Amino acid sequence: MPPDAARIVALVISDRASRGEYQDLGGPAIAQWLAQNLTSAYELEIRIIADGRDHVAAELQRLCDEDNAALVLTTGGTGPAPRDETPEAMRDIVEKELPGFGELMRRRSLEEVPTAILSRQTAGTRGKTLIVNLPGKPAAIRTCLDAVFTAIPYCLDLIGAARLETGGNLGETFRPR
Amino acid sequence: MPPDAARIVALVISDRASRGEYQDLGGPAIAQWLAQNLTSAYELEIRIIADGRDHVAAELQRLCDEDNAALVLTTGGTGPAPRDETPEAMRDIVEKELPGFGELMRRRSLEEVPTAILSRQTAGTRGKTLIVNLPGKPAAIRTCLDAVFTAIPYCLDLIGAARLETGGNLGETFRPR
Amino acid sequence: MPPDAARIVALVISDRASRGEYQDLGGPAIAQWLAQNLTSAYELEIRIIADGRDHVAAELQRLCDEDNAALVLTTGGTGPAPRDETPEAMRDIVEKELPGFGELMRRRSLEEVPTAILSRQTAGTRGKTLIVNLPGKPAAIRTCLDAVFTAIPYCLDLIGAARLETGGNLGETFRPR
């Protein structure tokens, strides 16, 4: 990849997908959305791991501290079911939570499905990495990325991460001032 | 009640109502709303207790762990006044908070009264029980139940609680897929 | 000031402004907005301090416990940048968080700028003081005050603080019942 390419990780959090019992569709949906809307250089890695609070928290911490990802997009584990612990794992390791992401993603998703309020998805930063939780279903992933991605390049600027440029349906990158 | 009837508790949290100085209107408003919108078997108990964080937390925990309630609807104690400690009591005992409930209830209530943002109401799960905080006034209770109840039957499915079916003004039960 | 004048503090939180490297515009924007919309007696003090979680928390606590401010309006330090720690400082000292303030300020600000979701601003009470976080830019300050101030006089009533009356573009004070 070019030396200044932004490192992005799609972290698929699913017991069944991690055991190969289920074909993950979340990672590919994220890949397709990024391909259609990012115009600057980036490298995307899709990783699939099992649910579990400590396990997910450790992987998120590693992606921030050792892997130098600029952006981690998780998919799965945000609902109220017993194995859904992605938000708890997030809070265990982020330094700053950004509640506006979850609020807006739920609000836009609610226009499509009345159970959107069950999602506990949030976002936060640790060092120079922004982590955003996405739902598991491809249609919901696209709705959420459409809702919040416009704010992501400037957020990465503020935390000193890689510079991103957008285009496509999302439009040109917005940076205040 | 039928063996598969859902157990629902309306927990009225009010110093004055618990001392009999005030005729509680919140419990009856919840009872009427449920009667008009639930079409499956349920058993409703209205309990009235005093405010107080430890006291309310202990009662909520008992309703989850020993009383096997599928759904607890609290009313009262969500504002900024000194004795309003229902959200703190909730957080002391829930395993997962569901912030989308509070966000949506405040948003819909705000269309009716500009002080709706003072409500700190939230929702959360503990084991196989969902707890939702409602305001104290009957009109506000109805606004909030209208706003979020559509997501409740599927939430109960996800946590392994009783199955609910809705009708009336709320419409048929929504379950994704 | 009249004996019953409400004490209001605009707390400007900015490393650069506190060192005199930057002319603060947030404090004057708050002063102008209050002058245009409050009709009851109040005393406003504008204080400028550096960023820093412990430092800001200590100053907020002092304003609540010793200075008897009815209302503290902070400006600055709510974003995701490393020195933005106002919400963390808030949570260290408030007794009750009021999430509806942050939700509504972000929602209204989002109508003006897509990066509004990056603001982590919130509100909360400690004893008889309400603290509300505002952004740093004058236009954003006005948007946020327009959004939430209608709920502030009644909130001050509920916590036993000074009585405020509003007018101007905001309209007459709203108090339920």
* Element order of chain A: H for helix, E for strand: EHHEHEHEHEEHH
Radius of gyration of chain A: 15 Å
Identify the strand order in the major beta sheet of chain A. 2-1-3-6-5-4
Amino- and carboxy-terminal Cα gap of chain A = 31 Å
Going by helix content, strand content and strand pairing, the class of chain A is alpha/beta
Give the full name of the CATH homologous superfamily of chain A: MoaB/Mog-like domain
The main pleated sheet of chain A reads as: 6 strands, mixed
User: What is the CATH domain class of chain A?
Assistant: Alpha Beta
Q: DSSP helix count of chain A?
A: 7
Helicity range of chain A:
25-40%
Second rung of CATH, namely the architecture of chain A:
3-Layer(aba) Sandwich
CATH topology label of chain A = Molybdenum Cofactor Biosythetic Enzyme, Chain A
Question: What characteristics describe this protein?
Answer:
homotrimer; 177 residues; alpha/beta; Molybdenum Cofactor Biosythetic Enzyme, Chain A; 6-stranded mixed sheet; 6 strands; globular
